[in-house]
């Protein structure tokens, strides 16, 4: 007697005493997964498991994470440029006072990172 799955056309292979379905993933292109998307993936995995596993099983996870990476990086770059302009952090300052320039840029990058994480990645 055929099971419901066999009636639907799912094929099985015998592994010892078990029948295991022959599952094949569709071809997917490679996506760039960086720091923003990895942080968002970990956040989903620990705090929104249903959404994470739905994306994973529908084979849309890496497409989604690639979009998150692109948007997070764009937001980060925009915030850094805006804050640097507001703080008057210029190439002239970099040449005249490199230590002050490094301090200000580090501060700006930390602020931008926190904004992106709180407003976009951990939501």
Structural features, described:
- Helix 4 packs across helix 6 (98-121).
- Helices cover 67% and strands 7% of the residues.
- The chain has six helices and two strands.
- The protein is mainly α and 123 residues long.
- The radius of gyration is 23 Å and the shape is rod-shaped.
In short:
This protein is mainly alpha-helical and 123 residues long. The protein has helices at residues 4-7, 35-47, 49-57, 61-86, 91-96, 98-121, and strands at residues 12-15, 18-21.
Cα(first) to Cα(last) distance is 49 Å
As a percent range, the share of strand residues is 5-15%
Sheet/helix structural class: mainly alpha
Q: Taking Cα atoms only, what radius of gyration do you get, to the nearest Å?
A: 23 Å
Largest sheet: 2 strands, antiparallel
Total of helices: 6
Q: Output the helix-strand order.
A: HEEHHHHH
Arrangement of strands in the largest sheet: 1-2
Helix content: 55-70%
Mean pLDDT comes to 90
Number of strands: 2
**Residue windows where pLDDT falls under 50 for at least 5 positions:** none
Shape: rod-shaped
């Amino acid at each position: 007697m055929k099971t419901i799955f066999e009636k639907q056309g799912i094929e099985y292979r015998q592994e010892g005493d078990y029948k295991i379905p022959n599952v094949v993933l569709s071809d997917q292109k490679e996506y760039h997964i960086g720091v923003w998307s990895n942080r968002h993936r970990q956040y989903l995995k620990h705090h929104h498991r249903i959404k994470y596993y739905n994306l994973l099983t529908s084979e849309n996870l890496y497409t989604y994470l690639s979009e998150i990476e692109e948007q997070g990086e764009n937001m980060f770059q925009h915030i850094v440029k805006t804050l640097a302009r507001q703080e008057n952090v210029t190439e002239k300052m970099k040449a005249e006072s490199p230590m002050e320039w490094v301090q200000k840029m580090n501060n700006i990058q930390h602020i931008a990172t926190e904004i992106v994480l709180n407003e976009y990645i951990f939501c």
